[in-house]
Amino acid sequence: AQTVTQSQPEMSVQEAETVTLSCTYDTSESDYYLFWYKQPPSRQMILVIRQEAYKQQNATENRFSVNFQKAAKSFSLKISDSQLGDAAMYFCAYRSAKGGSEKLVFGKGTKLTVNP
Amino acid sequence: DAMVIQNPRYQVTQFGKPVTLSCSQTLNHNVMYWYQQKSSQAPKLLFHYYDKDFNNEADTPDNFQSRRPNTSFCFLDIRSPGLGDAAMYLCATSTRTTGVGYTFGSGTRLTVV
């Protein structure tokens, strides 16, 4: 079974600075998808960014980018120019590309605090 | 806007009194999920429906059941809530295309008194 590990329960960053959240995963599959989700306090979980394992190029969405290292099974999230609204729980997640695999496997999350 | 709606946002129930949480979607996604999320923990999948096919996780207690009467609606029934069932319950939807992420509802926070 696949597992996702986020080794940083909490992180903090100064406003306008850059922060990197770590995620590693374990799988025997070669084709899969990786996601970062953001869950603000008492608010809906939303998708931040996704990465297709067969693509070498790292995904980027505005201030959010990933460093995907397939051989190392590492998928870190970099947030540039951090804003107060970035404060949230961040979950890394894995989904198999195998047909019929509906499950999303989550890590335990990293709580990000943004200091003004 | 197409979305996933959970009602109610907050639910208080008595110990042992059956409770039902609801989820509706306008995305026409064929997969619907129920997750349990306790404080500062990762969401834990309870079960999911692919169309009308029900898929229960092996470690989901029998106390939890679900119904999906049509594509748009899905219900989570807790037959006899215990104090340990107090949590946020998240509904999510997806297509079966595995590269697509989930769309989540806002969740229902269940308190058991």
Pairing-aware structural class of the strands and helices of chain A? mainly beta
- Name the helix and strand elements of chain A from N-terminus to C-terminus, one letter apiece: EEEEEEEEEEEE
Number of helices of chain A: 0
Low-pLDDT regions of chain B: none
State which percent range the strand residues of chain A make up. Answer: over 45%
Average pLDDT for all residues of chain A: 93
Number of helices of chain B: 0
Largest sheet of chain A: 6 strands, mixed
Radius of gyration of chain A: 14 Å
C-alpha termini separation of chain B: 36 Å
Which chains have the largest interface?
A: A-B, 28 and 22 residues
- The percentage helix of chain B is under 10%
Which whole number gives the mean pLDDT of chain B?
92
Which secondary structure elements does this structure contain, and how are they paired or packed?
The complex is a heterodimer of chains A (about 120) and B (about 110).
Chain A: E1 3-5, E2 10-14, E3 19-21, E4 24-26, E5 32-39, E6 46-52, E7 60-61, E8 64-69, E9 74-79, E10 88-96, E11 105-106, E12 110-115
Parallel strand pairs in A: 2-12
Antiparallel strand pairs in A: 1-4, 3-9, 5-6, 5-10, 7-8, 8-9, 10-11, 10-12
Chain B: E1 4-7, E2 10-13, E3 19-25, E4 31-37, E5 44-50, E6 53-56, E7 64-67, E8 73-78, E9 87-94, E10 103-104, E11 108-112
Parallel strand pairs in B: 2-11
Antiparallel strand pairs in B: 1-3, 3-8, 4-5, 4-9, 5-6, 7-8, 9-10, 9-11
Provide tags for this entry.
heterodimer; A: 116 residues; mainly beta; six-stranded mixed beta sheet; four-stranded antiparallel beta sheet; 0% helix; 52% strand; globular; B: 113 residues; seven-stranded mixed beta sheet; 51% strand
